[in-house]
Amino acid sequence: xxxxxxxxxxxxxxxxxxxxxxxxxxxxxxxxxxxxxxxxxxxxxxxxxxxxxxxxxxxxxxxxxxxxxxxxxxxxxxxxxxxxxxxxxxxxxxxxxxxxxxxxxxxxxxxxxxxxxxxxxxxxxxxxxxxxxxxxxxxxxxxxxxxxxxxxxxxxxxxxxxxxxxxxxxxxxxxxxxxxxxxxxxxxxxxxxxxxxxxxxxxxxxxxxxxxxxxxxxxxxxxxxxxxxxxxxxxxxxxxxxxxxxxxxxx
Length: 251
Description:
Number of helices: 10
Distance between the termini: 54 Å
Low-confidence stretches: none
Strand content: 5-15%
Strand order of the largest sheet: 3-2-1-6-4-7-5
Helix content: 40-55%
CATH architecture of the largest domain: 3-Layer(aba) Sandwich
Order of helices and strands: HEHEHEHEEHEHEHHHH
CATH class of the largest domain: Alpha Beta
Structural class: alpha/beta
CATH topology of the largest domain: Alpha/beta knot
Radius of gyration: 20 Å
């Protein structure tokens, strides 16, 4: 079980209260998850984090990883699940938590996976969510938001239960191959956008929505590193052709 759970990390984006980080660490330790990343401009105060984490999870707080941006925190991860309770026209479609975990479990063996949680007062922004492969929502009776530590607990319980079921029943879950990292995917998105703009496929009025759709599609299916290199090759060739046409040269 620990082998699969070692692939899992929780990422807390701009949490407002140090106590909630400690409470999340305590829950993570109970569920066998040993990596916590925090996105913040300063390290949260250690004492309240340790107090809520208790001795049982103090090692997670002392080993806490701090990042300036979510993009930096996600760089080594190949599968990213964002959590959100908010919906809107500009927001991506969400999966209920159980289906989201079911999709994620086959990826654990070969992919470092992150579960991302937003600030207590407003959750993850659209900019945060665009970095995620899928978005999971925890159903509630009256659509009220949950405490940060409660959300972490519910998500990690579903992950833990899924891993436990795999091990206890010796079920043959399909293992999906290693996917490109978040850093590699951000590079390909930037190159695709540049290519589509260069050939005038995208107009300024709609290219943000087009790029969001492309992110959704490629993020959902999960590209392998070699597939990313293949797409990069296509894009670079198209860019060379476009540059040659502009200058009247033969490529």
